[in-house]
Description:
Blueprint lengths: L2 H12 L3 E3 L5 H12 L5 E4 L2 H11 L7 E3 L7 H12 L6 H7 L3 H10 L5 E4 L5 H11 L10 E7 L12 E5 L9 H18 L5 E5 L10 H16 L4 E6 L1 H5 L1 H7 L11 E3 L3 H15 L2 E8 L5 E3 L6 H17 L2
Parallel strand pairs: 1-2, 1-4, 2-3, 4-11, 6-9, 7-8, 7-9
Antiparallel strand pairs: 5-6, 5-10
The structure holds coenzyme A.
Amino acid sequence: MGILDDIRARAGKFKKTICLPEALDERTLTAAAGCAKLDFGPVVLVGEADKIRTAAKNCGADISRAAIRDPDSDPEYEHIVSTLVELRQAKGMTPEKAREALKDGIMYAAMLVKLGLVDGYVSGAVHSTADTLRPALQVIKAQKGVKTVSAFFMMVLPESSPYQKIQPVLFYADSGLVQNPSPEELADIAIGTAHSWTALIGTKPVVAMLSHSTKGSAKHPDVDKVLAALAIVRQTAPDLEADGEFQADAALIAEIGAKKAPGSAVPGRANILIFPDLDAGNIAYKLTERLAGATAIGPLISGMAKPVNDLSRGCKAEDIIDAVAVTCCQAAASG
Ligand SMILES: CC(C)(COP(=O)(O)OP(=O)(O)OC[C@H]1O[C@@H](n2cnc3c(N)ncnc32)[C@H](O)[C@@H]1OP(=O)(O)O)[C@@H](O)C(=O)NCCC(=O)NCCS
């Protein structure tokens, strides 16, 4: 069974309620029908009920088992408005501005998550990463003890990859969100991604902090940043196995690690690669996808107080179902 089949099978058991705010999008409606067929928990669609039903009919999606949350008739609407005002008052939020903000289905979904009316949301088939995540960053916020929310890609390696037999799945972070992380942010990225590994894969996370240097082979402030982040990880999460700084080959290949980083237990066992910045993380995942033929799933989000996940605008309905399944597993892990 592939990792995605496994995640889907587990999602079916948790019966979590996941919101899909882009409810007029054909792929989203097809995915809502697919989630019901797989016997996931209920999917909640946000928007005008008539329009959603017509759109579903037009694309042949059976959404009879999905719930529709229409802000115009939602009995919780006023409570949602007043809670949003309360949460964002210091940022100038007023009841009028809150009503305006809630016309955005993604902000509505974020508030449903915040209030515990759903367990998480998945969006991004139509909206950009920034528009998908900003409402969540504003109202759901990072989980306790983590300041920085980050994005990772689950990289599923093909059988043709020489590394596939050692690690069939790797997480790359941050490959989609935090542009120029400070040491504190880089440490949060490592710890948050390790939590996601535990929630989704279930085996022991082993973190490699990557750089252009291995164990002092180069001296540069960029290397110092990675080492400072590693020190914070060790202090904040002493049980997490993490080491660095490593060049990618030293982290992945035990024989190279033995030469360049003697004494480290991480080389050849790393399953989480933490990149020094978004450029490196984003470029690396795309190169692995295109040159090694890996399947890249994401961007998936770590460190949010409740789970939220983004989609690529080129996604298919099956990708949305996978993201819903991931969100269910994250929701189950976060209680
Ligand atoms: C996600 C993103 C849009 C947020 O930036 P923004 O729209 O400028 O929003 P702001 O900086 O005003 O932040 C909004 C809120 O989220 C919080 N926030 C932003 N990034 C955060 C993070 N990584 N973790 C936790 N909180 C964060 C801010 O503190 C702010 O909170 P506040 O309003 O309560 O003060 C931005 O980080 C971004 O564009 N990242 C790159 C995404 C991208 O293009 N990826 C492409 C590769 S796939």
